[in-house]
Design a protein that fits this description.
single chain, about 350 residues, alpha+beta, Glycosyltransferase, five-stranded antiparallel β-sheet, 12 helices, about 55% helix, about 10% strand, globular
């Protein structure tokens, strides 16, 4: 197996980024040698990444850690009485629509791998609260609710995480997964509603900001939209949006990347190229994909410090690393590199394994 992938897997197991209670820190700050607080969203991503690593290697520790993450989400983070999934458990001040979808997908990934029905049940509860609590009077989805009253926060069009935009489709993909997992057609309808909104909104999302560095951040969000199209990638509108979106992201990365480049954007672009090609939505540009794999591998940290070694740096500004070793960057990067290697072996992974 690709050595970058194995080293990244070891980082997830040995770095301390996952706490003893199963929760996962937002990222490790190498400059001050400290983990950030546990995030429920990042724990959801890590659960999916650990399941993917288990699927690749068959090694039991990955599944054991995935189950730990899922139990943290289902038993400690999820407030069944209030029907709320907080951004952080202490203090539980906010709940994000996007985070909830990532958590649902992480719980479902662990349920499929472990067979523990508790995770599917909690995922369905979270999915229902997403539909009930976040829908606005205008028919889109509030990005953030203040807890405990679930009051929508004021939106900010210049901050993608505080606006209702096409990127929410990645989170809404959780509803499609719940439809497949439970057979409840209401979940499919929720996804289809989000799809229609996202397809209408997507052409307005990029560049979206005068500051090129902020545009790079928006590329990360726009790639979420492209990933969220995968359940319906065979439909003409979605296939066209995928093909056009890949070209748009590639162009802006080339334009901005010398000043600021995020590793997760590189990984997302490579992943969506591969999935779009497998699903017949957009033919693979092999030369561009090869370049992206090489660039992405260069973000992996090498250190004598186990908290850093094998992880992936969040980004690079000019010649300087952003000193954050990120579970999301690592998860996306290891998957993108593994998919690129597996492609030569004719392996086409199921969409459920997309982190």
């Amino acid at each position: 197996m690709f050595p970058h992938v194995l080293r990244a897997g070891e980082w997830f197991l040995r770095s301390g980024i996952q706490f003893a209670n199963g929760g996962v820190a937002r990222y490790y700050r190498a400059d001050v040698e400290r983990n950030q607080p546990v995030s429920t969203e990042i724990t959801g991503y890590a659960a999916s990444a650990l399941v993917y690593l288990h699927a690749l290697t068959g090694e039991a520790p990955y599944l054991e850690r995935a189950v730990d993450a899922a139990r943290f989400l289902a038993r400690q983070a999820w407030d069944s009485g209030k029907g709320a999934m907080p951004f952080e458990v202490e203090p539980a001040e906010f709940s994000y629509f996007f985070d909830c979808g990532i958590i649902v997908r992480g719980l479902l990934a662990v349920w499929r791998a472990s067979g523990e029905k508790e995770f599917r049940a909690v995922a369905a509860e979270v999915g229902r609260r997403m539909a009930a609590d976040f829908v606005s009077e205008d028919g889109d989805f509030h990005p953030v609710l203040a807890l405990p009253g679930k009051t929508p926060l004021e939106r900010d069009s210049k901050r993608w995480s505080r606006s209702s935009a096409c990127y929410q489709l990645k989170s809404a993909m959780a509803w499609w997964d719940l439809f497949e997992a439970t057979g409840d057609a209401a979940f499919r309808e929720f996804y289809e509603r989000a799809l229609e909104f996202s397809l209408r909104q997507a052409p307005e999302f990029l560049p979206g900001h005068a500051d090129p560095l902020k545009v790079m951040d928006r590329l990360h969000a726009f790639a979420y939209f492209l990933e969220g199209l995968l359940p319906c990638a065979g439909e003409p509108r979605s296939a066209m949006a995928l093909a056009d979106g890949i070209a748009q992201v590639q162009g802006l990365v080339a334009e901005i990347g010398a000043r600021f480049l995020r590793s997760d954007v590189c990984a997302q672009l490579l992943r969506i190229r591969l999935y779009a090609d497998w699903q017949g939505a957009a033919p693979l540009d092999r030369e561009a994909a090869c370049r992206e794999a090489d660039v992405l591998a260069g973000f992996q940290a090498q250190s004598t410090d186990a908290r850093v070694d094998g992880g992936f740096y969040f980004g690079r500004k000019g010649d300087e690393w952003v000193p954050h070793v990120s579970p999301v960057s690592g998860a996306f990067a290891l998957q993108a590199l593994a998919l690129w290697e597996c492609r030569s072996q004719g392996v086409q992974p199921h969409r459920h394994l997309l982190i």
